[in-house]
User: Fold this.
Amino acid sequence: MLRFLFHTFDICYNLIIRDFILTIKSKQAVEVSRRQARVRESPIPENVSKLHAAEAKMREIKANMAVLGKEAAAALAAVEAQQHRLTFQRLVAMVCLIFQYRIFYFEA
Assistant:
């Protein structure tokens, strides 16, 4: 069940979220390039300040993407660890049942 959820999350992340993030990042990159061209043409203070604001927003987007990537990796690692714990608990329960079965039926 958890593998199915992991696989579904991975598909959703790849198709929807990654495309959305890349669209935002590329739009902001276009904005920065456009502002850089304007500053080269006429370096007036208004254009320079708008360029700095666009560059700051681009850095913020990159930082947010890094944080989201780390959070997603941590969440997936937690799901995997939980799956390992559940599998181990099931194995222990099965072994206990096997021993109880053998003790009850073969030593009685």
